[in-house]
Amino acid sequence: MQAVVGDRLVIHGKLVGQADRHGEILEVRGENGAPPWLVRFDDGHETLLYPGADCELERERQAR
């Protein structure tokens, strides 16, 4: 999985009723967009993240 700064990340809840977590990628520390990524979640929490199978990237839309 490869990302660029500004992409949005969704970590899906693992249990029924558990909310998804949403965040923005602030920094890409791996080569060519590879993890780890510095992510700021919507609640303000920041963490260095290696994505798991429950993660999904929402690409930043390019201006035309």
What does this structure look like?
- By secondary structure, the chain is mostly beta strands.
- It is built from no helices and five strands.
- It has strands at residues 8-11, 21-28, 37-41, 46-49, 55-58.
- The protein has a five-stranded antiparallel β-sheet, with no helix packed on it.
- Strand 2 and strand 3 form a beta hairpin.
- The chain is globular, with a radius of gyration of 12 Å.
- It starts with 7 loop residues before the first strand and ends in a 6-residue tail after the last strand.
Rounded average pLDDT: 91
Report the total helices.
0
Are there runs of 5+ residues with pLDDT below 50, and where? none
SS-based structural class? mainly beta
Helix content: under 10%
Which key terms come to mind for this protein?
64 residues, five-stranded antiparallel β-sheet, globular, single chain, 5 strands, mainly beta
Quick summary of this structure?
The protein has strands at residues 8-11, 21-28, 37-41, 46-49, 55-58. It contains no helices and five strands.
Strand and helix map with partners:
Blueprint: E1 8-11, E2 21-28, E3 37-41, E4 46-49, E5 55-58
Antiparallel strand pairs: 1-2, 1-5, 2-3, 3-4
